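Write out the 3D structure for:
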Amino acid sequence: DDVSAFALFTYTGADGEQWAHFVDCRSIVAGESVLLVSQDVPYEEYAAERGARRQIERAIEFP
């Protein structure tokens, strides 16, 4: 079974700029290993940058 979890958080940096932080956790070998994908970008760039992250995620092959 594919076991994964993800979340998207938004926050305001010390300089007042809004940011988006994406986290995706995927089980590689149950009980042994996990892949963590993290993306931190300015909020207004999140939609444009999401495609690049997804391309990287799709290229990862699991056993």
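The mean pLDDT is 92.
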